[in-house]
Fold each of these.
Amino acid sequence: MPLIDSFNGIKIYIYNGDHRPPHIHAAYNEYEALITISELEIYAGELPSRQLKQVMLWFSENSEWAKEVFYELNPELK
């Protein structure tokens, strides 16, 4: 599970061999949320609201790059 970024105690992962929809795993302490890259929706797990806001801010600058990394690690899903 490649760590692609970390900030303020939040770690952003994209797994190789993962599944659709394209998403990231955002982890903070004991919390983890799977967030879709296109819709920016949590579809599994949870994060505290403060950390979720930080992840959404991260997405505002990195969503295209995250999508590229997701498909690079999961080319069979393209």
Amino acid sequence: MKKVLIIINDAPYGTEKAYNGLRIANQLNKEHENVEVRIFLLADGANCAMANQITPNGFYNIERMIKISVNKGAKVKICGSCAEARGLKSVTIIEGTEISTLAELTNWIVDSDTVLTF
């Protein structure tokens, strides 16, 4: 099975980097059953995992996009030190995501066939 790692470094809103990374993840899950999708939220990307995001009608919602990824089998991990630096350790994160480490990210990088960074 091919493994694709998507690293998201950018905040959920303000630019479309997180949005585009998750669009690719969800398209891979939709069209390629033989691909294992992994998403690692790093730096300001850790904010993408906050639960209960509210966006205006008609505007994309990163929480919903992550939930779609998780429901399709993607693994979603959040850099623990990045989350802690941003005060997210006590915030509810999206169900199915988990706090992780830089060591786990480096293992994913080595073990992945393709790594995309946003």
Amino acid sequence: MMISTRGRYALRIMIDLAEHQNGGYIPMKEVAKRQELSPKYVEQIMPFLTKNGYVEGLHGKGGGYRLRKPPEECNVRNILRLTEGDLAPVACLACSAVPCHRAEYCKTLPMWTKLNRLINDFFDTITIEDLVQNRI
């Protein structure tokens, strides 16, 4: 499993919004500049975060984005699942995988299953607040 730039950037955007929240809306161009991200790429990520209730946006003068949930309620695993689709380390463990005909005698499946559980359990314990506070 490799986390794509979309997943990594989504986390950076969420951290930036958490660090700069003041009740108002933060222009995405400011977040993009601070995080050294392409504004166009940020625009592609924001629908994942807004549609799923992590951020809310306001268009026009004074507009931008802000967190919709407190940072301590923004779970890293859920954010990565939104942007990555699946965190499975191998295709046969992906949510959409067709059951493998070799599963019952596959010698590596228990190892991949354990790794999958470790990955998901690890990301499940981390919130955006933890990342903001460097509590990892």
